[in-house]
């Protein structure tokens, strides 16, 4: 376990979830929630990427581990830190907003499939970053933009979270918000490994 990397994952996930909390609880907020999430993640990628890889998402962490880009001990400690950071954001949500805006949460398969589609795109891109396909100076912009698109893909059938930890942080936690992103991220990362890596090799 790398303490600095674990701390980076906790702080980064807290910041990402807090951005979502603030935008969700302010319907008139000038920056739409998907854009807020993408901008936040883009900034965090440049700040924390050199420390931990800036995964900030248990589903993506599992996927990146599954393609051999991080070790099992790091993956486990990162996931624990990510949920801890999201839990802190949830606690702050309850402190900042007397009556937090309730989000619709259901356990339908359609919700999980919607989350799966968005998470697959996000993990495909992050996998390409870990394989060195995206120039370092562009990683924040590319990953942030991909999150916005992935949220848009998912939003037709879910709250467009794509992240089990952030789902906890904003009060949108249910089984489809876990299995959907995990399955989608695994698909996306392995597609990236086989498609992007081969393209680079060629």
Task: Give a written overview of the molecule.
This protein is an all-alpha fold and 202 residues long. The protein is built from 8 helices and no strands. α3 runs antiparallel to α4 (72-96), α5 (109-130) packs antiparallel against α6 and α5 runs parallel beside α8 (176-201). The radius of gyration is 16 Å and the shape is globular.
Order of helices and strands: HHHHHHHH
Ends apart, CA distance between termini: 36 Å
Structural class: mainly alpha
The geometry reads as: globular
* Residue windows where pLDDT falls under 50 for at least 5 positions: none
Percentage of residues in strands: under 5%
Question: What fraction, in percent, of the residue positions are helical?
Answer: over 70%
Give the tally of β-strands.
Answer: 0
Q: What composes the largest sheet?
A: none
**DSSP helical segment count:** 8
Rg value = 16 Å
Mean pLDDT: 93
Summarize the structure.
The chain is mainly alpha-helical and 202 residues long.
Provide the fold topology.
Layout: H1 3-24, H2 33-52, H3 58-66, H4 72-96, H5 109-130, H6 139-154, H7 164-169, H8 176-201
Helix pairs in contact: 1-2, 1-4, 2-6, 3-4, 3-5, 3-8, 5-6, 5-8
Key words describing this protein structure:
72% helix; mainly alpha; 202 residues; 8 helices; globular
């Amino acid at each position: 376990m790398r303490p600095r990397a674990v701390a980076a994952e906790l702080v980064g996930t807290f910041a990402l979830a807090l951005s979502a909390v603030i935008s969700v609880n302010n319907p008139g907020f000038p920056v739409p929630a998907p854009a807020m999430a993408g901008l936040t993640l883009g900034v965090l990628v440049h700040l924390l990427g050199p420390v931990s890889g800036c995964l900030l998402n248990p589903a993506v962490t599992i996927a990146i581990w599954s393609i051999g880009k991080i070790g099992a001990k790091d993956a486990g400690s990162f996931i624990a830190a990510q949920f801890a950071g999201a839990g802190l954001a949830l606690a702050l949500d309850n402190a900042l907003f007397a009556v937090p805006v309730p989000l619709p949460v259901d356990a339908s398969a359609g919700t999980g499939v919607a989350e799966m589609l968005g998470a697959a795109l996000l993990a495909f891109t992050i996998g390409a970053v870990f394989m060195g396909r995206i120039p370092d100076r562009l990683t924040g912009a590319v990953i942030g933009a991909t999150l916005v698109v992935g949220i848009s893909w998912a939003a037709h059938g879910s709250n467009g979270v794509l992240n089990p930890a952030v789902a906890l942080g904003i009060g949108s936690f249910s089984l489809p918000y876990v299995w959907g992103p995990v399955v989608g991220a695994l698909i996306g990362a392995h597609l990236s490994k086989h498609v992007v890596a081969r393209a680079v090799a060629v």
